[in-house]
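Posted in: Structural Biology > Protein-Ligand Complexes

Title: Requesting predicted complex, pyridoxal-5'-phosphate in pocket

I'd be grateful if someone could produce the 3D structure tokens for the following input. Sequence and ligand are given below.
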Amino acid sequence: MATGPKNLYQKCREYRDSADARAQGFYPYFRSIEEPHGNYVVCDGEQKIMIGSNNYLGLAQDPRVVEAACEATRRYGAGCTGSRLLNGTIKLHVELEEALADFLGREASILFSTGFFANQGALIALTEDGDAILCDRENHASIIDGCQFAPGKLIPFRHNSAASLENRLKRLPDEAGRMVILDGVFSMSGDIADLPSIIPVAKRHSAMVYVDEAHSLGVLGRQGRGTVDHFGLHDDVDIVMGTFSKSLGSMGGFIAGNAELVEYLKHKSRCLIFTAALAPAIVGGVMKALEIMQEEAWRIDQLWRNTRKMHEGFKRIGFQIGETQTPIVPILIGSEAKAFVFTQRLFEEGVFATPAIYPAVRYGEAIVRTSFMATHTDNDLDRVLEIFEKLARELGTFDDPAYLNPGRRKNTFDFSLSNPVAVEAV
Ligand SMILES: Cc1ncc(COP(=O)(O)O)c(C=O)c1O
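-- Reply #1 --
Done. Output follows.
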């Protein structure tokens, strides 16, 4: 019997995962926050310690940042109603681009409406058919998706492995342009890109180096200049990408580099040309946050004190926190269901954290992703540790095979691309 053409709506009708998790009482997504206060939030009328944000310096709710956003709105309006290229550029955009370039010691920068678009926009515009994008396997989804849509071919290398990178690079023909791209701080594992090992390999093979500083701005380097600055490798990195959605407390992204690169992107990046410019409120707020970040050194100092306290505290209890070196602390749980249950119990006990499951992490290695802030108090952090310890006992976390066989991490990670043909087998 003819059934007619395929119905694209069918998969939506059949999708049950979220409804099942809700029915079982541990659905962890789209939780509605009534009052964000930085280190704590109010949900359903109850206060929760927030350890699930990327608001590392506590600037998202800073009254000076909020006032700057309001002032920009009063002056320039609620939105720009068009692309930067055409009618959407206001003086504030240009000032922020100059401030970022100056801060990072680059000739120029260009703003994008999200960090996701910055990565996609740059990768699509800069590579051509036959070029190779050498991509750390644990890079963020915006890079992976950017590679998928870019004309250049995605070639993954083993996480933070200069040897694996070398292996890939030496097989490329001379005609292939090469770009090596990696997160400065990896968003799930919290480890830092091994630029001192990776960059010499990239240079030996004439590859352009591109570093995504989303989680390192405001965290590493002088006054929060990021991983490239942390290692003092400015001259060896061609492209720096950053976001405003973490330490700078807002949203949006940018690419910084030499003037020719930025000029090219301004005229060739579809992710910039065919979308509306960042709203004045965002630009005004980010500009103020960037100023505060440079003026108030205590924030980064306190962020690192809190980070060290939590690394030590979780390890003392017996949690596996992987290779993290930063305020992102992944708490290995194991199965996805257990990670959901752990997250839900945390919430009930007054802690807001988020689970991360495949494909954000490897199969069978679901985590509760925690991240810490400059504005967490000792009381907040002690309470968090106390609750984690109590729940690990209650839920038998340490009886999970992941804890019994800590060396079993296998590189089963794939990128869940809709078009896996673009990925060279590793
Ligand atoms: C490493 C990395 N790059 C890029 C992005 C995308 O940034 P945005 O959220 O500003 O679009 C993120 C966001 O989580 C990220 O973690």
